[in-house]
Design a protein that fits this description.
Elements lengths: L21 H11 L3 E6 L3 H17 L4 H16 L4 E6 L13 E6 L2 E7 L2
Antiparallel strand pairs: 1-3, 2-4, 3-4
């Protein structure tokens, strides 16, 4: 007859005064991934840079209010291009199929948020 021994590993976690909490770790991870990442764009480089700057500024100004950030981005793009017709969608999970003016589409991520910016036909 063969004996089978089982071992149990236990780990005692102690909190050091200088240790990092889970919340601090998550916040530092968010800061590392909060740079803008352009996924798709048909804009020229100058327009794309202005649009990305508008998006980042609005999201920093309204970090927890996507509706106000979206309005701010739309108004900034309307003012920069001297017209109207810009639309902005911000969210954490959505799909889209749109018709847009040529050279007026920007689809990007900022952290875990997706931003769709386009001008209607």
């Amino acid at each position: 007859m063969t004996e089978v021994s089982t071992q149990t590993n236990t780990t005692n976690a102690s909190v050091n005064p200088g240790s990092v909490t889970i919340e601090q770790s998550l916040e530092s991870r968010r800061q590392l991934t909060s740079h803008p990442l352009v996924r798709t764009s048909d804009m020229d480089d100058d327009s794309k840079l202005e649009a990305v700057e508008s998006v980042v500024t609005a999201l920093e100004r309204f970090p927890n209010n996507y509706e106000n950030a979206s309005k701010a981005i739309k108004e900034a793009m309307d003012k920069k291009t001297g017209g109207s017709g810009w639309h902005c969608v911000i969210g954490e999970g959505f799909g889209f199929e749109i018709n847009h003016e040529v050279r007026s589409l920007l689809y990007m991520f900022h952290g875990n948020v997706a931003i769709l910016l386009f001008k209607c036909i």
